[in-house]
Amino acid sequence: MNKSKVKSTSKINTRMMEALEKALFLSVSENTAACYHLQSGGSRTRAKLCLDASNALMLNEKMALSLSCCVELLHNASLVHDDLQDNDAERRGRASVWSRFGKDIALCAGDLMLSKAYGALSDIDEINKLPALLRCVSDSVSKTIEGQCKDIHQQCKSLSDFELIAAEKSGPLLQLSLALPLIAANYESEVERASEAIRQFAIAYQIADDMNDWRADLANGQLNIVNLLARESDHSQAIELAKTRAQYLLKRCELELKELPANCGASAIEACQQLFKAVCRSQNE
């Protein structure tokens, strides 16, 4: 019986993901640059987390699709703007939007997806839930912008500075994948717990990423936790310290997610466990 239930859920998610893709492209169909970016692929991780949480919390499909579309458009808008600010010429193995269409067009394409993310919420029938949902999205976008500004200026002198930048740059938009379904399901009191868990995941993810890129970031003068810690030790010790911190954060994240209602953080827990295993494997290499 359990196997049957899992298979049914998977089938629903596949169908919903197809509907999501259609909604994403339809929302930006008249903008070539935005469509080009969406066509480059991507894991749609945030949308999947949102759909799974919505399903666990028994939200209807229309609500789940609106929330997931909002989350995914916000994420992709941030990627287009991030590539522009970092002068990254490639994204997902091909030319980034600004590299292909120019910086002005890329800025507009990102702005369009940001606008359409808010527009996705207009499909929600339960009007009484819109104020809280819109407030949550607006606050998350504002925090992301603040984190991006800090990252650009690299005002980082300590581990706490690094974690603040990592959390504010990557965490808020990822947090929406759980926060929006919780609000829609009348669990607004659980949003803080979910957001703190995802905050820890975002920091751990950045640490894991930095452990792979510390040499390149050192050469390019980019912010990297390993190189920051190496100021007080050597790089071997810095890597071990970074790994230990990432593992600790991921364990705390998993514990917090397990406390969420209706097991709505199950997919996030799985992602957390996968990242933990990746960090452990890197420890033996």
The percent of residues in helical segments reads over 70%
Largest sheet: 2 strands, antiparallel
Straight-line N-to-C gap: 41 Å
Number of domains: 2
Number of helices: 12
Unreliably modeled segments: 1-11
Family: Belongs to the FPP/GGPP synthase family.
GO biological process, one term: isoprenoid biosynthetic process
Protein name: Polyprenyl synthetase
Pfam families: polyprenyl_synt (PF00348)
Tell me what the structure shows.
The protein is mainly α and 285 residues long. The protein folds into 2 domains: 1-124, Orthogonal Bundle (Farnesyl Diphosphate Synthase), CATH 1.10.600.10; 126-285, Farnesyl Diphosphate Synthase, CATH 1.10.600. Helix content is 78%, strand content 1%. It has helices at residues 2-27, 32-39, 45-56, 61-86, 97-101, 103-120, 130-153, 159-184, 191-220, 225-229, 235-257, 266-283, and strands spanning 90-91, 94-95. A two-stranded antiparallel sheet has the order 1-2. β1 (90-91) and β2 (94-95) form a beta hairpin. α4 (61-86) packs antiparallel against α8. The longest helix is centred in the C-terminal third of the chain and has 30 residues, at 191-220. The N and C termini lie far apart (41 Å). The model is unreliable at 1-11 (pLDDT under 50).
Short description:
The protein has 285 residues and is mainly α. The chain has helices spanning 2-27, 32-39, 45-56, 61-86, 97-101, 103-120, 130-153, 159-184, 191-220, 225-229, 235-257, 266-283, and strands at 90-91, 94-95. Strand 1 (90-91) and strand 2 (94-95) form a beta hairpin.
